[in-house]
Each structure stands twice: as structure tokens, then as C-alpha cells.
Amino acid sequence: MVDDATSPDRSGQVDMNSEPTTYETPDSPALDYTESPPPPEYQSEHIAIESVNSNSAREKFNASQVDGTSTDFRTIKTKGWHLSTRPESGVERIARLRREIEELATDLSDAEHASLSQGLEAACMTPNLATDSEATGKVASKTNLESIERLSLLESRISSIENRFNSTTEYNLAAQIDLLRLKVNAITENEVMEDIITRLKKMNDESATVAKSAVMSRLEELYEASGSIKGLAKSTPILVERLRSLQGIHESAAESKMRLDTVKAALNERRAEVANWSQALESMEEQMKLGMTTLHQNADVLASLVDPLLSRLNE
């Protein structure tokens, strides 16, 4: 064991201080703890922080604001059902028309129309009356809504059918539906179908005969013209040779015409040159005449001067 007196003093060295470590505490008995701030929440641009306003969403997608009166819901694809891309045949079309007429006749029955009108009157009268209990009020409102929906559906279907028939409100639709049913039944009868088939066959035969008659008339015309064609067959080689000779003559005539054109152009040039030379000669002749006159005048002047000199010399 090492004595404290002989042990070296390590109080000045780091982590070698022999004195005990003291910690100071605040004067207040209650300790003041500072809470750390919460971590910042991650905010993304694609996340909506605001709450959803259910009332505005309900008003936006309210069914009463959608106008579906002119919509034909029979052609809408439902789940598990697909429209056929195959073209509709005549029998299928007749069956579909018959089925639609029957559905329309059932929809336009007097009993249903009366019940719907009564429901509409009840729906119009019930808002003005006071209900005794909450349960009876709910049942009445539900029945009124159902009757109104059925009536609106019926009115939409009637309006769509009237638009197809191009009719007005004064148009008797039930009578026309019965008439259309009679027409469809008359068309689908076997006798009518056989009559239509026979007419089609007759029209096909007539069209074939007309086409054959037109072809035969053309063939007869060609047969009549064949005699004249055979008669001309002997003279065709001579005509061909003459045509060839005429072609050569035309070619030589064209060449001679070109040569004549060149000769005419040369003659015109020569004529222009001759005209220029004639003008030059005329100007030279005029100048020579002027020179002769001046020479004669000079000779006369010299003679007038020489004669006195000669007379003096002779003297």
C-alpha cells in the first residue's frame, strides 16, 4: 500500500484530480426541466392536410343537379354484361321492337297512370299537412319520393319516345303504339314474309335479265360491225403503208419548212444589209456631186485668174 505522503501529486493532471467533484443545484426547490421541441412533421405536397367538407361534396355530387331526362339507360354497360358488336339482324330487330312496344304499353296502362297521379297529388299535399308522429312522416315521405321517382322515370321515357316519333303533347301516343304493334305483327306474319321474299327474288331476276339484255345488245352491235371490220382487213396494210409514207412526207415537209424559215431569215438580213449599203451609196453620190460642183467652181475661178496672165504673157 502506498503512503499518501510519499505518493506523487497528480491533482493538476487531467482526470487525476483527487478532489471530489461537486455539482451546484439551483436555489429553487422545484427543478425546472425544459422540454425539447417536438420533431417537425413531414409535410408532403400530395397530402391534403385540410379536413374534408362533407356538405360541399354532397352538394357537388347531388343527384338532383344531374339532368338525365334525355339519357337512354338501356344501352349502358352494367357489371357482368357487355354489348354485342355483331350487327343486329332483321328478326332480332323486329323482336326488340315488339318487346319495347309491350313494355311501353304496360308502362302506359291506365291503372299505373292513375296510381302515379295519385302519388303525385299525395306528394304535393303532404308537405302542407302536419304529421302526428315521426314514424308516419318518414313512411309518407318515402312513399312520396318513390312515387315521384317512378313518375319522373315514366315522363322521361315518354318524352324520349315522343322525341323519336317527332310528336307533340296533343299526339295520341297509345293509339300510335297499338298501330305500331299491328304493323310489327303484320310484318312478322309468314304470309307477309313469303310475299316479301318472292318480291325480292323477282327483283333480283329482273335486274339479272336487264343486265343480260344490255350485254346482249352490245354483243349484237359488235357482231354487226364485225363484217365491216373484216372487209377493212384487206385494205389495212395498204393504208398502213400510205400512212407511213404520209408520215415521211410530213417529216420532210417539216424539215423543209424549217429550212425555208432559215432562208427567209437570211434574206431578211441581206435585205437589211442592202438597204444600209444603198443609203451609204446615196450619201456618197451626194457628196461626189457636191465635190464636182466645187471643182467646177474652182476651175472657173482659176480660169478667170489664168486668162489675164496668159494674155499678159502673150503680150
From TrEMBL:
Biased composition (Polar residues): 8-25
Stored InterPro entries: Dynamitin
Subcellular location(s) per record: Cytoplasm
UniProt region (Disordered), positions on chain: 1-44
GO biological process: microtubule-based process
One Pfam family, short name: Dynamitin
Lineage: superkingdom: Eukaryota
Keywords, ordered alphabetically: Cytoplasm
Cellular-component GO terms for this entry: cytoplasm; dynactin complex
Main location as per UniProt: cytoplasm
Name of the protein in its database record: Dynactin subunit 2
Organism: Taphrina deformans (strain PYCC 5710 / ATCC 11124 / CBS 356.35 / IMI 108563 / JCM 9778 / NBRC 8474) (Peach leaf curl fungus)
